[in-house]
Amino acid sequence: MDTPLIEGCVDSYASAAAAALAGADRLELCANLAIGGTTPSPALFKQVHRDVAVPVNVLIRPRFGDFLYSQPEMEEMCTEIRAFRALGANGVVIGALTPEGTLDMDKMRRLMDCAGDMEVTLHRAFDMTRDPLEALEAAVALGCRTILTSGQASSAPAGLEILRTLRARAAGRIGVMVGCGVKKENIRAIFDGAGITAFHTSGRGASIDSGMVYRKAGVSMGLPSLSEYEIWRTDPEEFRLCAEIVHGLL
């Protein structure tokens, strides 16, 4: 049986510190989790790497949207991977697809070459592939350490059947880590249903109200569905409870 692991998905110094103190075994450092995550800044990585006592993997994703990348975007990602490697990142979290919905093996090899001896996680681009078992075999062939997945469903609890199949097919050749919608209320059920012991969560509780007193009505800096006056952050108590459940699975 695999060793239980909980990875904190964080996009700020405050969230990284909260998750690490609350029991995270590893962090995935991102920016902009409200849009699914993008590459964080080197400055943020340096702060987190300096001050937290757990390994930090870095998401490499240049933009919101699909995982079909142009050559300039590939150049950007390769440069970022090399930079974070030089800064001491434990690993990178990557993914690139073809228009037909398979892993783009040429682009993935290029990214992995840049990663060198760092750990590589295939991110949830996996969940957008047309055939999860084919994508799993491709990830094994590439040498990825882990696949992060919801079981190709809208949330991990809805993807139990595929998660169970992926774990069986992986057969110890590659790790399978559950992400998307992971909460303290469903970790045990996911483990019971799929047998997976690695979990990925932001541990986000209720949003934090902004300290702004003056608030400009009718103006949005980004997605109009999101308020400019609420802050998403890891809730240390929520994460602690998740970590206790994960670490007690075996």
Nutshell version of this structure?
The protein is of the alpha/beta class. It has 8 helices and 10 strands.
Unreliably modeled segments: none
Q: State the end-to-end distance.
A: 8 Å
Give the number of DSSP strands: 10
**What is the SS-derived class?**
alpha/beta
Strand-residue proportion: 15-25%
| Count of DSSP H/I helices | 8
The best one-word shape is: globular
Major sheet size, sense and barrel closure: 8 strands, parallel, barrel
Radius of gyration: 18 Å
Quick check: average pLDDT? 95
Q: Which strand order does the major sheet show?
A: 1-2-3-4-5-6-7-8
The H/E string reads EHEHEHEHEHEHEHEEEH
Q: How much helicity do the residues have?
A: 25-40%
Describe the structure in your own words:
The protein is α/β, with parallel strands linked by helices. The chain has eight helices and ten strands. Helix 5 packs parallel to helix 6. The mean pLDDT is 95.
What is the topology?
Layout: E1 5-10, H1 13-21, E2 26-29, H2 42-51, E3 56-59, H3 71-87, E4 91-94, H4 105-115, E5 119-122, H5 132-142, E6 146-149, H6 160-170, E7 175-179, H7 187-194, E8 198-201, E9 208-209, E10 230-231, H8 236-247
Parallel strand pairs: 1-2, 1-8, 2-3, 3-4, 4-5, 5-6, 6-7, 7-8
Antiparallel strand pairs: 9-10
Essential attributes:
250 residues, alpha/beta, two-stranded antiparallel ribbon, globular
